[in-house]
C-alpha cells in the first residue's frame, strides 16, 4: 500500500518546539494559580468574618471600637493578616451598621513583576 506524500504532510503531529511552548504556558498558569490561591482564600475568610459580624447582635448595637475589636478577634481565629480592625470603614445606613473592608494585596510573580489585586467586602453586599 502506497501512501501519497501529500497525506503524510497533513499528519505531522506536535513537534518538540510546540511541546516546549505548551509546557511553558502550563507552567505560567500553574505559577499564577499557586501565587493567587492564598490571596483569594484570605478574601473568602474576610467575607466569612464580615458576614458573621453582620448577623451578630453585639455588632449591630456596638460602638465602632467594639466592632473593630470583634473583627480583630475573629481575624485572629481565621488567620487573616491582610487587614486589622482599624482598616474597616464602619457606617450607619438606614439605622443598620455597615462594615466595609477595602484593601490591596501585592503578589510577587517573577523578578520585577508584581500583580496588584484590589478587594472590597461589605456587610451590605449580603
Q: What's the structural blueprint in terms of helices and strands?
A:
Layout: H1 5-10, H2 16-55, H3 57-61, H4 64-77, E1 88-93, E2 96-110, E3 113-122
Antiparallel strand pairs: 1-2, 2-3
Description:
The chain has four helices and three strands; from the N terminus they run H-H-H-H-E-E-E. By secondary structure, it is α+β, with helices and mostly antiparallel strands. The chain has one domain. Strands 1-2-3 form a three-stranded antiparallel sheet. Strand 2 and strand 3 form a beta hairpin. Helix 2 packs across helix 4. The model has no long low-confidence stretch (mean pLDDT 88).
Uncertain segments of ≥5 residues (pLDDT<50)?
Answer: none
Number of strands: 3
- Give me the strand/helix succession: HHHHEEE
Shape: elongated
Write down the domain tally: 1
The termini sit apart by: 70 Å
- Estimated share of beta-strand residues: 15-25%
Indicate the mean pLDDT. 88
Range of helix content: 40-55%
Across the major sheet, the strand order is 1-2-3
